[in-house]
Design goal:
7-stranded mixed beta sheet, alpha/beta, Quinone Oxidoreductase, Chain A, domain 1, Rossmann fold, 9 helices, 6-stranded parallel beta sheet, globular, 28% helix
Length: 326
Amino acid sequence: MRAILITNNEDQYQASLENVGQEQLPDGDVTVNVQWSGYNFKDGLALTGKAPVVRRFPMVPGIDLAGVVEVSEDSRYQPGDHVFLNGWGVGEKHWGGYAEKCRVKADWLLTLPAGMTLKQTMAIGTAGYTAMLCVLALEKNNVTPDKGEILVTGATGGVGSIAIALLSKLGYDVVAVTGQAENHDYLKTLGASEILHRDEFASQGKPLAKERWAGAVDVVGSHTLANICASTRYGGTVTACGLAGGMELPATVAPFILRGVTLVGIDSVMCPMSQRQAAWHRLATDLDLEKLEMMTHQIQLDHVIDFAKNGLSNQQPGKTVVQVQG
């Protein structure tokens, strides 16, 4: 089978497209004939070695995969079933989706939602599923559309793009944050009512700022997250799901103890299956698939390594899917 293999021999980190024997597949209950995968920020870090995403070597990266069951030792899945997977350490500790076949635990798989294709599940991928988890957290904390504006950072990325599309369809007033002026029209088409430059949030601000946001979806962290919390309205909720700007949080407790702001951490990797199923059920009903098509770009497995090395995902908005076979 063809697979992208990451090795790290004597500190020589390398990703290459190889022909790999299927006998090398790791243990698991279900073997999937992989049709599609996705390209995520974390996949780019794994492929380039810019962050210690990969925990074991050699590793097949790709934190998402979708395909057809080939062999199953679990009664829940039969050959021919259409399935997909997000997270669970796949592409980090367990061989992932950038290969023509993958063997995984049955407990990690989801069945294809009604009315959705395998390609669409990967166009949504971990990024879109994470965005939906953020929306569910806002709803759980009673942040309804009438409460005020919702801020979305990293707006042209996968999480941001799908968060804007979801929130706007649900009736929220969405304000997008980006550093890419050329993509303002794209963000307005997704449903953003206003667009702010990321520099407004990037440096250290006051412990408390003027109240504005009823809620937020943040993928940046660091000063951006601290400034969002400082300007969130009384009783508002901020969801944190990324660290593109850094892992630190240079904030004070002021927003939390003086305004009752809630900071919710969103984990998509080990999220319980019940929450995953709820998120994907909502994605199947609440995401405008025409907007998803508009924000989706496609590359072949052969092009993934160069795509990561050249940082091409930062040059175009939306989501990138990887056609593994075909």
